[in-house]
Amino acid sequence: MNYQHYYINEKSIHPKALQLIKDAHDEVQQLFQEIEERAQYHQSRIIDSFIKHRVSQRHFAGTTGYGYGDDGRDTLEKVFKDIFECEDALVRPQWVSGTHVISDGLFALLRPNDTLLSITGEPYDTLHNVIGIKESIPGSLKDWRVNYKQVELTSEGAFNYKEIKEELRDLTVKTVLIQRSRGYSTRKSLKASEIGECIDYIKRIRNDVYIFVDNCYGEFTEDAEPSSMGADLVVGSLIKNPGGGLAPTGAYAAGTKEAINLLSSRLTSPGIGREVGSNPSGYQYYYQGLFIAPHTVAEALKGAILTAWIFDKLGYRTSPYWSDQRSDIIQSIEFNSAEELITYCQAVQSASPIDGFVVPYPWDMPGYDHQVIMAAGAFVQGSSIELSTDAPIKSPYIAYLQGGLTYAHVKLTMLRVLTTLHNEEYIRL
């Protein structure tokens, strides 16, 4: 079959876009090999844990009511404990998002008159209301008299150890927050090794503080997770990396027994904790999603590298650079105007398997300070491990691409994007 003929004549793809993607694919093969080897490593670890805990069909069954003795739920948490190399773990569909589990974790670890210290600057937009950074809304940490401070990363994107040490002199600081990924900022994402070094540094100064890591977008991108490096609590969403594109909802938390016990009381109620929590739909997609997660993350990483190579070649500013070592699945591209950014996002949406006929526009999204445009034609609503791109409509005009269940889908999307940008005269192929 003449595949090139199919792309050009049946899908209205510019022939030079096809050649550009072929050039990119050929040049990044060494990086792809490293990613695939890491995926193989994590796949082996997951299989070993499944076998260790004798996972079988019975663990997929749903439960109702209180969910007492839910073996599928409890065994899944044992598997996560193994994979994240920590003392304990919670994995629950009752958490609706990454923000939800982060919020529960903060409220679990902090008390009135305590101080939360963020050492990666301002957290992701949806946490602003949780913390009460700019105003105290009902139910926020600020409303509960929890104080907040932050330390910016250095201009090189590293931890500012001098300022961290100074802030730790404040004995009201009880929880230190680290956001691994960049969110809607221009700084680089943090490597697990960098986080591990900072954890060691903090614990030598103050062993009485909890270290809390927002691990969203970072799982399985490196050899180890921050939960194996001394973090008290590491959390993330199951509709991102560890759900493999199959988990329909939920989140996980991994860490020390003490921190997980405190979180379990916030998950349900004090005195009940983790012992309840049913799931009538069962657990197949959670087990299967975790099983496939290393492969899915590898596909997303390959797609991000391909995208970075292409846009760098076209003269755009990208982060990470295509050859950089990666610690999350996010790829940012800086456009020249709001109109160009919107055109790009609309082109991504047009290649989506779900709602590919929909044209996205910027809107006032809850939890964000600026209008946001989101291209996300996903099987699981809002799933960030599926190919999507979103951007706040503000200068600099940066789009954040993440996910991709298959590398082939990312390539096809980039063909559509390049052709659209060329036709709209933003680029010349």
List the helices and strands and how they pair.
Blueprint: H1 3-11, H2 15-27, H3 29-52, H4 71-83, E1 88-92, H5 98-109, E2 115-118, H6 128-131, E3 147-150, H7 161-167, E4 173-179, H8 192-205, E5 210-214, E6 233-237, E7 251-255, H9 257-267, H10 284-313, E8 317-319, E9 331-335, H11 338-350, E10 372-375, E11 388-392, E12 397-402, H12 407-423
Parallel strand pairs: 2-3, 2-4, 4-5, 5-6
Antiparallel strand pairs: 1-7, 6-7, 8-9, 9-12, 10-11, 11-12
Helix pairs in contact: 3-10, 5-9, 10-12, 11-12
Describe this structure in words.
The protein is an alpha/beta fold and 429 residues long. The protein folds into two domains: 3-42 and 291-423, Alpha-Beta Complex (Aspartate Aminotransferase, domain 1), CATH 3.90.1150.60; 61-282, Aspartate Aminotransferase, domain 2 (3-Layer(aba) Sandwich). It contains twelve helices and twelve strands. The chain has helices at residues 3-11, 15-27, 29-52, 71-83, 98-109, 128-131, 161-167, 192-205, 257-267, 284-313, 338-350, 407-423, and strands at 88-92, 115-118, 147-150, 173-179, 210-214, 233-237, 251-255, 317-319, 331-335, 372-375, 388-392, 397-402. Strands 1-7-6-5-4-2-3 form a seven-stranded mixed sheet. Helix 10 (284-313) runs parallel beside helix 12 (407-423) and helix 11 (338-350) crosses helix 12. The two termini are 26 Å apart. 48% of the residues are buried. The mean pLDDT is 94.
